[in-house]
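S1.2 Input.
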Amino acid sequence: MSATWGNRPAHRVPARKIHPPPPPTPHVVRERIGARPETEAVGSRPVTLVSAPTGYGKSTFLAAWARTSTTRVAWLGLDDLDNDPQTLWHGIVSSIEAADVRTTGRSGPWPLDDLWGPGHEDGGPVDRLISVIDDSTEPVVLVLDDVDEIRSDGARATLDRLLRYLPDQLRVVLAGRFDPPLALQRLRAHGDLTEFRAADLRFTRKDVQTLGELSGVTLTTDDQHELHEATSGWPVAVRMALVTARDTPVGPTLQRLLSPRSPVADLLVADLLASLRPDLARFVLRATTCRRIDAELADALSGSPDGSRLLLECVDRGLFLEREPEIPGTSAVYRWHDLFRAQCQARLAASEPSTWRSLHRTASHHWRDRDLEEAVDHALAGGRPALAAQCISEQWIELVLRGQHALLLSLCLRVPPPFDENPDLLLLVAVCRYLEGNPVQADLQVRRAHARAAADPPVTDGGRFVLLESLLRLLLAVDAPDLVEMARRGRELLSPGSATTDDTATAGAEYIVGQLLCRVGERATGVALLEASATIATSRRMTALRLACEAELALVASTVDGVGAGRTRARRVLDEAATLGWQSAATISPAVLALARAAFERDDLDEARTLAARSASRNQPTDHYLRVCSQALLLEVALAAGEPAGAEALHSSLLRREHDMFLPATWPVVALMLDARWSYAHGSSSDARQTAEKAAFDVMLPHHPDSLVWCADLLRLDGDLVGARAVLDLLPGGCRASHSLVAHRVVGALLADAEEQPDKAHRLLEQAIALAEVDDVRRPFVDRSCQVLPLLRAHLGWGSLHTAYTVTLLDHLSGVRPPAPLVPSFWSLTPREHEVLVYLRSAMTAADIAAAVFLSVNTVKTHQRAIYRKLGVVGRREAVEVAAERGLL
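S1.3 Output.
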């Protein structure tokens, strides 16, 4: 090092290099930075790094801070000449001297001229300055602006040495367009580095408003929002837009600023690109093809494996990239600043149009199984409408399952002629019309697609169109088949003779048919189809389809294997859906219902009510099965909790659907037993007995174990022990649902106790406790708490292998109060009030409703007031929302 240091240079450093620049006019104090705690402020730690792209006001921010700092601030603006270590050090020392003169009007206490010359070869002037400042009691902050100009090894070594042995009285601030290649990681690891990034320096909406006022430009609230969104708070872009807007309206100014032909934005971007290495500048032009980018896409767009490395370099330099919220298990994804991206793409499209189109086609292939809208837009930009149509045909089911059929329709309509006449696309438009609730338009569109396919048959895989057309006709249910018939037709669609080589279409069909089969009781075949669909969905990255299959499998597991198995699978589905932001997707509602059932069997009625209401309100419009099952569970919750208003409305609603052809064959017996339980809860044991006796002779009773157990229990409670035993014995030997088996054993134990068979009663009770402990099933005990409690207490003396859980059950049951009989009360809606409530969902006025139900307007208004009072609401909208939550609608 001694060979590079001579005497101190004789020339003086230009004054503008060693003094903070004056503030711009007008000047805005950054709101975001001002809110930082003192421990995160400039100079709060040994080193402060201010790193952001051109135009973020780094120098302006630091100069404003320097003017108000109570500590003396030495300022040095760096340039290319400072890559010489001696010139750099001369500038640093001169800046410290200037700070002394600027602050006190005289030279500082340090013998800075002695830093050069012989006698200091071991460490040179760097170590000498460190020692001099270390001996001083006068603190100083050294600001090195444009530190990214330092590229030589010698200059970097000089700064690294200074930072490594930084004295307590010296703080250093490094400002540049990107992180300098210095040993910052060590400082960061030791907590010695404060960092300011583009996110800290960008203007807030308040900053935009303030700058507009200072610039003499009147901005409305919408103008502020639009300007902030358009520029993403990039200070220089905001400033230039406001300068231009002094003589023109803000709206046109923003349009010109964001236009690819904007000279202002082009000047800013051209200056930034010129500051980059040629290979990095070219990468930026290619990589901005997409709004979002990750390492894999960076490699594809760059045409080389260096893309991911160059992307990270762009991130390190702060080149208008923001990291999107991280999704576990995925690589980092970044989003380009819209204004910057638009200008880069305009430059590339103008200079290399064929390359620009080719890159859009590359991007379309990347996004085709990740983001359908991105894939279609890039295919169209790349001049490949046929590719856009193909992408839609491959991934349409993902949008449908996420409830985004409006977006799917929009994408289909973006495809230009003649490709928009593709029979597959016409079918998908029919799907969208069907999901909009317009079956007539959907049917017409299917006919149009069929005619188009007949006139111009598909060259390859004609089976795909036939399968999709048949599926859609099945869902449209033109000839109104029942659920069993729909399942039979669905099974035929997947027969070997109607196969297609398109695994996406096959997976969609397997999901739909598998769901139908599970719901009509053909669970083995249905589960096999759902699992096959999920396998294809996994391989094709069709996350929505996979989650839909797994949600349905969770509901099947809850019914067949018990609430514990269903809860585990459902929780997995809902956790992943929450990570993806798909909590409201209708296709995960089966998993929500599985969790609701688990909560109910655990005797968590509040949780069960919330989840069941969510499942009832968030399902496909045509999914009668899931809606009715959710409402049935809500009725069970209302009966268990003793809620007359909710129970009465749900009971009448469900009974009206007793013979609904869109429900499985077991539904009539389920409805019968819900009616029997409702009667018993209202104190009408004779009606309950008669209904239970009727259900006992229904051939479908053994196919619904929960209803079977309740039928036997109601007969037992009425004293018909023989009838109760006969019904209990109907339980199929293959039943393995834990909650059903627990209830069966509990009722069996009570029946044996009534028959004075105590050993048998305790054996059955022991089996019930053993099964209940695994999945924490408490409801069968709670429903019969008055009779179960004495038997449970005696069971501890009889001897149990599950003493701890028995004690848990005893503690739980001791705090349970049986609900009072659900006699009609002040809070129950009358049938006429319920009829008026249904009309409240519409836009009809009170006069319109009165005409529809043949009442006077005053009578309708009286019913409305009664509804509001009973539901505890103050208005029509709130009444509808609360009624929907309680299952009254």
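S1.4 Remarks. The domain at 831-885 is CATH 1.10.10.10 (Arc Repressor Mutant, subunit A).
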